[in-house]
Amino acid sequence: MSETILNWGIAACGLISQDFCTALRATKMPNHALKACAARSLERAEKFAQKFEIPSFYGSYDELFADKNVNIVYIGTTNNTHKEVCLKAINAGKHVLCEKPMSLNKQDQEEVFKAAKEKGIFFMEALWTRFFSIVKKFKEQITNGSIGDIRFIISNFMVPIKSVERLNMRELGGGGLLDIGIYPIQMICYLMDHEKPLKISCSGHLMPSGCDESASITLLYKNNRMAVINMSTTCVQNARTSVMGDKGMIEIPDFSWCPVEFIKADRTTHKEPLPGCPPTNFTNSVGLSYEAEACREAISQGWKEHPVVAHDNSRLVNEIILESMKQLGCSF
């Protein structure tokens, strides 16, 4: 692989952006450099820059995108601004890694993809789970036939986060499906090789604000196969993924969005510890470094999208989310 160097600009200085920078610094990956950051408050950007030893900081995203020392942008803004910020970065000629969900509707998603294609730049939605080597090995166990043919998948993400303010705010793109439900949805899409389900059925409950609080989604596939996603913002943590075949079962016992172990068909456990890292805001965030390196891999190869999170992959995930939200009565 050529020595492509990614000079990162960080758009927004919130908790997930903090974890992204912490991961890059902790893993000390070569060919990645934090060059600039921006927030809507110059003071906040300055504090962020000082914390992560970033040489340049700005009080607007436009200034960040104009920085010639930056060749790729990590977008960690609130959900409702992703389209706007992505388009500005793309039009400035920057490669983009955008936090999930990349958009709140199909039209915005297509607008971003179209702009990236026309500009000839790399764009990826940050479905970071897929770049954990243990997730690849989990899927390989299934592909290699250890459980026979897949018949049923159950993937959960339940965690008591209903009190988080932004989740209750429709104007910010709130709700559980876009925040945590996207993880089991994308996991099932990944394990099913992005096969489009024949039918999507969803039921659940809404918060007083109209955002989704909980949901259970059933996906029906050809040949009588099924998958079920359970999401809740009020339960104790449960993030298990179980894949049942006609000859056995394999499962990730917890933390399916950032796993460190899975149970094989023979019921032995395969473990892969993560690199050492200072404390982060969210679980196992050091793994964010894996998606950063995936961006470098793609850009060094001249790819405009990464095959592990191809644009069509994001389209399918978004389609399932949007149809589920429509059935719940909380579409944007």
UniProtKB/TrEMBL annotation:
Pfam families: GFO_IDH_MocA, GFO_IDH_MocA_C3
Known catalytic reactions: D-xylose + NADP(+) = D-xylono-1,5-lactone + NADPH + H(+); (1R,2R)-1,2-dihydrobenzene-1,2-diol + NADP(+) = catechol + NADPH + H(+)
Transmembrane segments: none
Main EC class the enzyme belongs to: oxidoreductase
Top-rank lineage group of the source organism: Eukaryota
One GO MF term attached to the UniProt entry: D-xylose 1-dehydrogenase (NADP+) activity
Keyword annotations of the record: Oxidoreductase
UniProt keyword Oxidoreductase present: yes
Domain Gfo/Idh/MocA-like oxidoreductase N-terminal: 7-124
EC number(s) recorded for this UniProt protein: 1.1.1.179, 1.3.1.20
Domain GFO/IDH/MocA-like oxidoreductase: 136-251
Family, similarity comment: Belongs to the Gfo/Idh/MocA family.
Name of the featured protein: Trans-1,2-dihydrobenzene-1,2-diol dehydrogenase
Lineage of the organism: Eukaryota, Metazoa, Spiralia, Gnathifera, Rotifera
